[in-house]
Amino acid sequence: MAPFYSLAMRLRAALYANGLFSSEKLSLPVISIGNLTMGGTGKTPVVMYIVRLLGQEYKPAVISRGYGGKSVKPVTIVSDGQSVLLGPDAAGDEPVLLAQALPGVPVLTGAKRVKTGRHIEAGRLADLIVMDDGFQHLALARDLNLVLFSGDELLGDGWVFPGGVLREPVSALGRADAFIITGVTEQNKAKVEKFKDRLGHRFSDTPIFDIHYRIAGFVAHGTDPQQLPVAALLGKKLFGFCGIAKPEGFFSALRGAGLLLSGMQAFADHHRYSENDLRLLSEGAQQAGCDGLVTTAKDFVKVKNMSVPLPIWVAQLNLIASHDFDMFVLGTVRRAGAALNADI
């Protein structure tokens, strides 16, 4: 099956490239953040980082497919820039997380990103659009095409779905304007450097940037959420849980911050938590003698209203990018904006 799927994706890309399928252009700059592999590459923190970076000069909005959300509307407004209007059941966990983490930024979902973009354009909701998970969504033209790789997985086994983890053949990377390798650590640095050499040899005109994550602190769950430094949880026995694509990365980050994990539970990516899940997690944590539960912000949006007898601490990630990366993104968007204004 993999060769047929690969051929289909090549044909689809060629039809767009040759104008037989059209990519619609908006009057606003569009930045796409996506990946070639299935599973987690850290897109959500990168989307947050880029929105905040561009928010210094622009009024950005975020559009997403809304994976996991039940809404079937052509355009669903998760946040209007003033309030978060929907929960994860309707909108999907990642759009809600983005809406909560980016106050003042409209967040909209829809299967056809062109319609979502046109809605933003017509309502003058923003002057720039960041498209989450947009690399394969070729119907909407973009001015900056960023492709992410996980520092641990990179290209996986190199096979296209269903035989491997690639959504498209490696040749699709020719559409990218820049490559970003996330989660680079001392443990995977040598492998990452070899991979960068391979990328640079095949796509010599495409810049490559590294991005690092670190746990900057925690938010204590409660009626009055409190920001806590990492030091506040040192020495406590913690039970970690998450439903993300790369759970081992989250658990490793906690240990790397010096925290003591006395128990762990990984769920499938985009897992819909039930009260029974939280009951079983709490029981497991209590049996292990834990002081509380620790999870990701993405998971917390789905459990925040559930009753839990133990404290829940939500890990806060800081993304560390280079000045060169910031200038590359800002410079590309400024040029795109100037070109669009000249066409008006």
Short description:
It is built from ten helices and 13 strands. The chain is α/β, with parallel strands linked by helices and 344 residues long.
Question: Top keywords for this entry?
Answer:
344 residues, 13-stranded mixed β-sheet, 13 strands
Description:
The model has no long low-confidence stretch (mean pLDDT 91). The chain has helices at 2-17, 43-54, 88-91, 93-101, 113-123, 189-202, 247-256, 275-287, 297-303, 323-343, and strands spanning 30-35, 60-64, 76-80, 106-109, 128-132, 144-150, 178-182, 208-220, 226-228, 237-242, 260-266, 292-295, 312-320. It contains ten helices and 13 strands. 34% of the residues lie in helices and 23% in strands. With 344 residues, it is of the alpha/beta class. It is globular and about 60 Å long. Strands 1, 2, 3, 4, 5, 6, 7, 8, 9, 10, 11, 12 and 13 form a 13-stranded mixed β-sheet that branches.
